[in-house]
Design brief:
The protein is of the alpha/beta class. Helices cover 32% and strands 22% of the residues.
Length: 184
Protein backbone atom coordinates (compact mmCIF):
# COMPACT_ATOMS: atom_id res chain seq x y z
CA UNK A 1 0.00 0.00 0.00
CA UNK A 2 1.49 3.30 -1.10
CA UNK A 3 0.24 5.83 1.45
CA UNK A 4 0.87 8.99 -0.59
CA UNK A 5 4.64 8.68 -0.79
CA UNK A 6 6.48 11.63 -2.26
CA UNK A 7 9.77 9.92 -3.10
CA UNK A 8 10.67 7.30 -5.71
CA UNK A 9 9.23 4.40 -3.70
CA UNK A 10 5.95 4.27 -5.63
CA UNK A 11 7.85 3.75 -8.92
CA UNK A 12 9.86 0.94 -7.30
CA UNK A 13 6.67 -0.63 -5.94
CA UNK A 14 4.94 -0.32 -9.33
CA UNK A 15 7.83 -2.06 -11.09
CA UNK A 16 7.74 -4.81 -8.49
CA UNK A 17 3.97 -5.22 -9.01
CA UNK A 18 4.40 -5.21 -12.80
CA UNK A 19 7.08 -7.93 -12.58
CA UNK A 20 5.19 -10.15 -10.09
CA UNK A 21 1.62 -11.21 -10.83
CA UNK A 22 1.01 -12.04 -7.16
CA UNK A 23 1.72 -8.43 -6.08
CA UNK A 24 -0.99 -5.79 -6.02
CA UNK A 25 -0.08 -2.13 -5.53
CA UNK A 26 -2.76 -0.07 -3.83
CA UNK A 27 -2.32 3.70 -4.01
CA UNK A 28 -3.99 5.72 -1.28
CA UNK A 29 -4.02 9.38 -0.38
CA UNK A 30 -1.79 10.04 2.61
CA UNK A 31 -4.10 9.06 5.45
CA UNK A 32 -1.84 7.27 7.92
CA UNK A 33 -0.47 3.83 8.58
CA UNK A 34 -3.64 2.51 10.24
CA UNK A 35 -5.74 3.21 7.16
CA UNK A 36 -3.03 1.91 4.81
CA UNK A 37 -2.74 -1.32 6.76
CA UNK A 38 -6.52 -1.77 6.82
CA UNK A 39 -6.61 -1.35 3.02
CA UNK A 40 -3.92 -4.01 2.68
CA UNK A 41 -5.72 -6.40 5.02
CA UNK A 42 -8.98 -5.96 3.12
CA UNK A 43 -7.26 -6.73 -0.21
CA UNK A 44 -5.21 -9.67 1.10
CA UNK A 45 -6.03 -13.06 -0.40
CA UNK A 46 -3.11 -15.18 0.82
CA UNK A 47 -2.82 -17.41 3.88
CA UNK A 48 -0.49 -15.10 5.80
CA UNK A 49 0.02 -11.41 6.51
CA UNK A 50 3.14 -9.61 7.70
CA UNK A 51 3.66 -5.88 8.15
CA UNK A 52 6.79 -4.11 7.00
CA UNK A 53 7.28 -0.45 7.87
CA UNK A 54 9.40 1.92 5.82
CA UNK A 55 12.31 1.57 8.26
CA UNK A 56 12.17 -2.26 8.24
CA UNK A 57 13.89 -4.82 6.07
CA UNK A 58 13.30 -8.56 5.85
CA UNK A 59 16.15 -11.00 5.60
CA UNK A 60 16.07 -13.01 2.38
CA UNK A 61 14.86 -16.21 4.07
CA UNK A 62 12.41 -14.53 6.49
CA UNK A 63 9.08 -15.46 4.90
CA UNK A 64 10.04 -19.09 4.24
CA UNK A 65 11.28 -19.55 7.82
CA UNK A 66 8.24 -17.89 9.37
CA UNK A 67 5.80 -19.92 7.28
CA UNK A 68 7.67 -23.11 8.13
CA UNK A 69 7.60 -22.23 11.83
CA UNK A 70 3.90 -21.37 11.95
CA UNK A 71 2.97 -24.51 9.99
CA UNK A 72 5.16 -26.88 12.02
CA UNK A 73 3.75 -25.54 15.28
CA UNK A 74 0.14 -25.27 14.08
CA UNK A 75 0.13 -21.71 15.39
CA UNK A 76 -1.89 -18.65 14.41
CA UNK A 77 0.95 -16.16 14.90
CA UNK A 78 4.73 -16.43 14.93
CA UNK A 79 6.73 -13.72 16.71
CA UNK A 80 10.23 -13.16 15.35
CA UNK A 81 13.33 -11.68 16.88
CA UNK A 82 14.63 -8.61 15.05
CA UNK A 83 17.86 -6.68 14.85
CA UNK A 84 17.85 -2.98 15.60
CA UNK A 85 20.39 -0.83 13.71
CA UNK A 86 21.34 2.82 14.13
CA UNK A 87 21.29 5.39 11.31
CA UNK A 88 24.81 4.30 10.25
CA UNK A 89 23.72 0.66 9.99
CA UNK A 90 25.54 -0.53 13.12
CA UNK A 91 23.81 -3.30 15.08
CA UNK A 92 22.55 -1.92 18.38
CA UNK A 93 20.69 -4.93 19.82
CA UNK A 94 18.58 -7.99 19.12
CA UNK A 95 15.04 -7.73 20.41
CA UNK A 96 11.53 -9.05 19.77
CA UNK A 97 10.69 -11.37 22.63
CA UNK A 98 12.06 -12.54 25.99
CA UNK A 99 10.32 -15.82 26.81
CA UNK A 100 11.56 -19.40 26.82
CA UNK A 101 10.64 -19.82 23.13
CA UNK A 102 8.05 -22.56 23.55
CA UNK A 103 4.61 -21.98 21.97
CA UNK A 104 2.22 -20.07 24.21
CA UNK A 105 -1.51 -19.40 24.50
CA UNK A 106 -3.17 -16.06 23.78
CA UNK A 107 -3.54 -14.95 27.41
CA UNK A 108 0.12 -15.60 28.20
CA UNK A 109 1.22 -13.58 25.15
CA UNK A 110 -1.18 -10.73 25.86
CA UNK A 111 0.25 -10.44 29.37
CA UNK A 112 3.82 -10.79 28.08
CA UNK A 113 3.26 -7.84 25.73
CA UNK A 114 2.40 -5.61 28.72
CA UNK A 115 5.35 -7.01 30.68
CA UNK A 116 7.71 -6.02 27.81
CA UNK A 117 8.53 -9.66 27.09
CA UNK A 118 7.09 -9.41 23.55
CA UNK A 119 7.64 -6.34 21.37
CA UNK A 120 4.32 -4.53 21.06
CA UNK A 121 4.75 -3.86 17.34
CA UNK A 122 2.61 -5.36 14.58
CA UNK A 123 5.79 -6.00 12.54
CA UNK A 124 8.30 -8.78 13.22
CA UNK A 125 5.39 -11.20 13.25
CA UNK A 126 3.59 -13.40 10.75
CA UNK A 127 -0.15 -13.85 11.16
CA UNK A 128 -2.66 -16.20 9.66
CA UNK A 129 -4.89 -14.04 7.49
CA UNK A 130 -7.99 -15.48 9.17
CA UNK A 131 -6.88 -13.89 12.47
CA UNK A 132 -5.95 -10.49 11.03
CA UNK A 133 -9.15 -10.10 8.99
CA UNK A 134 -11.08 -10.11 12.30
CA UNK A 135 -9.22 -7.02 13.56
CA UNK A 136 -8.73 -3.46 12.33
CA UNK A 137 -6.12 -0.84 13.04
CA UNK A 138 -7.29 2.39 14.64
CA UNK A 139 -7.04 4.95 11.86
CA UNK A 140 -6.66 8.17 13.83
CA UNK A 141 -4.19 6.98 16.44
CA UNK A 142 -0.42 7.07 16.62
CA UNK A 143 1.13 3.87 17.97
CA UNK A 144 -1.86 1.80 16.88
CA UNK A 145 0.24 -1.38 16.89
CA UNK A 146 -0.43 -2.20 20.54
CA UNK A 147 -4.25 -2.43 20.47
CA UNK A 148 -4.07 -4.29 17.14
CA UNK A 149 -1.53 -6.82 18.45
CA UNK A 150 -3.49 -7.35 21.65
CA UNK A 151 -6.66 -8.10 19.65
CA UNK A 152 -4.75 -10.53 17.41
CA UNK A 153 -3.20 -12.31 20.39
CA UNK A 154 -6.61 -12.71 22.02
CA UNK A 155 -8.07 -14.21 18.83
CA UNK A 156 -5.18 -16.65 18.41
CA UNK A 157 -5.16 -20.08 20.01
CA UNK A 158 -1.42 -20.62 19.76
CA UNK A 159 1.53 -18.28 19.27
CA UNK A 160 5.02 -19.55 18.48
CA UNK A 161 8.42 -17.91 18.34
CA UNK A 162 11.32 -17.58 15.90
CA UNK A 163 14.70 -17.07 17.58
CA UNK A 164 16.56 -15.87 14.49
CA UNK A 165 16.29 -12.10 13.90
CA UNK A 166 14.52 -12.09 10.53
CA UNK A 167 13.55 -8.40 10.55
CA UNK A 168 16.05 -5.57 10.46
CA UNK A 169 14.80 -2.31 11.93
CA UNK A 170 16.73 0.80 10.89
CA UNK A 171 16.59 3.76 13.24
CA UNK A 172 15.45 6.96 11.58
CA UNK A 173 15.28 10.07 13.78
CA UNK A 174 12.15 11.23 11.88
CA UNK A 175 10.09 8.07 12.48
CA UNK A 176 6.95 8.32 14.61
CA UNK A 177 8.45 6.24 17.42
CA UNK A 178 11.63 8.31 17.69
CA UNK A 179 10.54 11.90 17.33
CA UNK A 180 9.07 14.20 19.91
CA UNK A 181 5.32 13.88 20.27
CA UNK A 182 3.62 16.88 18.75
CA UNK A 183 0.07 18.21 19.00
CA UNK A 184 -0.94 16.37 15.79
Amino acid sequence: VNDGSTDESVAIAQKFADDNENVLLINAKHCGSGNARNLGIKAATGNYIAFLDSDDELTEEAVAKLVSNIEQEGADIVVSKYSYHNAEGKLIRISGWYLDGTPQDSYTCACAMYEYKIANTCWAKLYRTTIVKQVQFAEDLWFQDMPFLLACFLKAEKICFESEPLWKNHSRPSSVTRRTIERK
